[in-house]
Amino acid sequence: MASACVTGATGYVASELIKQLLSTGYSVKGTVRCPVDSPRVQYLRDTAQSFSGSLDLVQVPDLQQGAKALDTALANSQYVFHVASPYRFDGDPDLEIVQPAVRGTKAVLEAAAKHKSGVKRVIVTSSVCGEKEPDSSNS
Q: Left, alpha or beta for 8 (phi > 0: left; psi -120 to 50: alpha)?
């Protein structure tokens, strides 16, 4: 069975990706910030029941904690989909979006490198924040 890790599992794009992976029989590990038994993730568990693939949720409160925080999520994953990204439109864009996104992506890539014998491919997506016009008051 093919295996994948999807960061930011509760997000719109990630939850749809998880659904598609499960429907094709993948074993999926999804990272979530909240506890894995939280009602916030029940819809993911319910979705998984409808498909042949399997879903395990792994709590990673902050991707910026570094690669070690992702070890469990990436263990035995062949594919890594980095979908998690900061999503804010207030405050300083560099401090609130860019720097956390870079640190999170770096942590995912470092974790994938640690598991390079099993990881075949890393897919990194962007955020809707990447297409928003900067607010001139924050420039």
A: left
